[in-house]
Write a structure and sequence with these properties.
This protein is α/β, with parallel strands linked by helices. The chain contains eight helices and eight strands, in the order H-E-H-E-H-E-E-H-H-E-H-E-H-E-E-H. It has an eight-stranded mixed β-sheet with strand order 2-1-3-4-6-5-7-8, covered by helices on one side. Helix 4 packs parallel to helix 6.
Length: 213
C-alpha cells in the first residue's frame, strides 16, 4: 500500500497543525477482517506523524470490548477524539475519512486542537442550553461534496455540549446500517434515531429539531 499523503499535502498539513494549541488523541478501533480498517489505520498514522500535538491509539475491538463500550463504538473501523485531558468529546468517525471527508477530519483535528468554532454567539448560546442526550448520525458517501459540512455541524454541536454526540457514518462501508435507516440520498442526518433531515442543513436546522425534542 502506497502512502496516502504525498510530500506536498504532508507539508501543508504540518503547517496547519502548527497552529494547534491543545493536544488531541485519536482512538481507533479496528477488526482484522474489516474492509477499510488497514487503510484507515495507515491514514491516521500518517496524519498524527505531522504534529507532536497529535497521538493515536489503535485497538482490536474484539480484544478491547470494554474500551469500545466506553465510547459506544460498535462498528469498525471507527475512531473517536479525546481532548487534552483524555476526555471523549462526542466526536466520532465510522469509516475511512477519505476524499471529501478528509476535510471534515482535518477540521475536527483543528477544532479539537483549540481552533475557534466559527459560530455566532447566539448559536453557541443555544447549543450550550441543550440539556438532554442527543445523538446525531450523519450518513455520507466519500464522493459527496455536500456531506462534510453536515458532519462538521454534528461534530461542533458535540464539542460545544457534553450532552451531544456527533458521528459520521460512511454509507457504503456500513450498507446494512444505511438500509436500516432508509438512506437513499446523502447527507442524511438522523437525530436520536428518530428525526431526519435530508441534505446539507444549516446548524439552525439541527437546533430547531433538537430544541423540539
Amino acid at each position: 500500500m502506497g502512502k496516502f499523503l504525498n510530500a506536498e499535502v504532508s507539508s501543508q498539513l504540518r503547517e496547519i497543525f502548527s497552529q494547534m494549541t491543545k493536544a488531541t488523541k485519536i482512538v481507533l478501533f479496528i477488526d482484522g477482517s474489516c474492509d477499510t480498517c488497514l487503510e484507515t489505520k495507515q491514514l491516521l498514522e500518517e496524519t498524527v506523524e505531522l504534529s507532536d500535538k497529535l497521538s493515536l491509539d489503535v485497538f482490536e475491538i474484539k480484544e478491547k470490548g470494554e474500551e469500545a463500550k466506553k465510547y459506544d463504538v460498535t462498528l469498525t473501523p471507527s475512531f473517536v477524539f479525546l481532548d487534552d485531558k483524555g476526555v471523549y468529546q462526542g466526536v466520532k468517525f465510522n469509516g475511512i475519512p477519505g476524499n471529501h471527508e478528509f476535510i471534515t477530519f482535518i477540521t475536527a483535528i483543528m477544532e479539537m486542537g483549540g481552533a475557534e468554532i466559527p459560530y455566532p454567539a447566539s448559536i453557541v448560546e443555544r447549543i450550550k442550553k441543550i440539556d438532554k442526550p442527543v445523538n446525531i448520525k450523519v450518513f455520507v458517501t466519500l464522493s459527496c461534496p455536500h456531506c462534510p459540512e453536515a458532519v462538521t455541524n454534528a461534530h461542533r454541536l458535540a464539542m460545544l455540549n457534553k450532552n451531544v454526540t456527533g458521528e459520521m457514518i460512511e454509507a457504503q462501508t456500513f450498507y446494512e446500517l444505511s438500509q436500516q435507516y432508509n438512506v437513499s440520498g446523502v447527507p442524511k442526518i438522523v437525530i436520536n434515531d428518530k428525526y431526519e433531515l435530508i441534505g446539507n442543513q444549516p446548524v439552525e436546522q439541527f437546533l430547531k429539531v433538537i430544541e423540539d425534542l
